[in-house]
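Format notes (please read before filing issues)

Several people have asked whether sequences and structure tokens are stored in separate files. They are not. Every record keeps both together, in the order shown below: the sequence lines, then the token lines. Line labels are part of the format and must not be stripped during preprocessing.
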Amino acid sequence: MRTTASIGPGPSTGIEDSGPEGNERLTAVTGTILLVLFAAEGVTILGLNGLLYWHYFIGFLLAGPICVKIGSTGYRFLRYYTGNPAYVRKGPPMILLRVLGPVVMLTSCGVMATGIALGFGKSSRLAGLPMLLLHKGFFVLWAGAMTIHVLAYLWRLPRLVAADLPRTRAHRAASAVGGGGLRWALTFVGLAGGVVFAVLCAHLASSWQ
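Then the structure lines:
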């Protein structure tokens, strides 16, 4: 009887363990892109009077990479809790990060949804809700949760991103993990989708001028 799918601890070998590693690399690449975009969005907050268009543009652009990251982390969650051997062997994040993960996801969606609603609603009140205040509230909650999230994972990003970059020492040293082309394609599609969304909708900032 074959026992290669045993869930016990031990070294990871073979194709069966490429899934979690590939998923982790996709999450890391997308997370790095999001960090850059979050920093740019933060700059626009410092001068909304003159940078409101770019605040909207970057905000809409974020939607694409955020969807990719939610998809990659959600896939890991699903595979782990449905008992996939490779993902079980990889193990879950620390308990604090497992609790914080849904908070980061929900507040990210809250900030995005209220920001989009403000643009399309052309008013600080939509369906009876103080949407602008709600947007700011979600942002405060998101900023706190995201700070902890970033500090926990930041040190791992350079290694994981470099491992998927061709012609780098880290890439040559990393164990062979299939699906690199698909990971970069998903990253590009998410980013391109965000750009298209931003180009089509950033003009909504004019309703707040």
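For reference, the curators noted about this record: The chain is about 75% helix and 0% strand. The first helix runs from residue 18 to 45.
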